Amino acid sequence: MKYRNPTPTVDVILQCNSKILMVKRKRDPFKDQLSLPGGFVNEGETIENAMKREAMEETSLEVEPIEILGAYSDPRRDPRKHTMTVVFVGIIVHGSPMAGDDAGSIEWIDLADIESKQFAFDHHMILRDYKKWKTSGGTFWSTKRRND
Amino acid sequence: MKYRNPTPTVDVILQCNSKILMVKRKRDPFKDQLSLPGGFVNEGETIENAMKREAMEETSLEVEPIEILGAYSDPRRDPRKHTMTVVFVGIIVHGSPMAGDDAGSIEWIDLADIESKQFAFDHHMILRDYKKWKTSGGTFWSTKRRND
Question: What ipTM did this prediction achieve?
Fold first, then answer.
């Protein structure tokens, strides 16, 4: 018997002053929409290394994890199949942001402006949770009770 | 092309006074060793629901997630295949602990005694991280630099 499981992905939040680094998606799903840098975790690779690899591929930046913001696994978060993501808060340790092969372009968005924008997947929820994390800490998951 | 990914699992830390609830494993790997309650995440199921389901199956307890302690994905953590786990800190909301079908027996271990004990998988590291979390918070992953 073959069990089926969600497919693990990773994402990273990189903040510089009031700005968050996003990538414009080159491909469907959510083509041309903004998402956090991230992607699938390969077998044999830790999630933290997957996060660093994806950040490098998509933004040309060397990043390091600082904390885990949360783990999001709502089956509807990706129209292709059931995925789950571990979201890291990271820091840029080297490089200048530049769109890589996997990203159409990169864009710095102001954290104050997220309510007026659309994002791929559940990244709107993740950015809201990050704002909350900045003031009160904590960790987050898809069905966590939120008071707003 | 078929990509291969780590298989997601969940675990939960349940503390009552100074004691942590562990289950004695009925099956290999790590047969007869102590592990945190947990198991594989099914497709279509959130990780938090997987955690609640596994806690119920293994300990007969209804639990709720409080925080995420970390996400551990060292490819060597499970001898069967590459797994990753999201570890929740939970609270017991209903029931009395009783070994379920999937667990040989349950055991409360003192958090002060973990250094003298052996645990399945990387649960020794996870329990150490939990002790740290109790005093200083934070989140954890397999290759995080630890100062001890």
Answer: 0.95
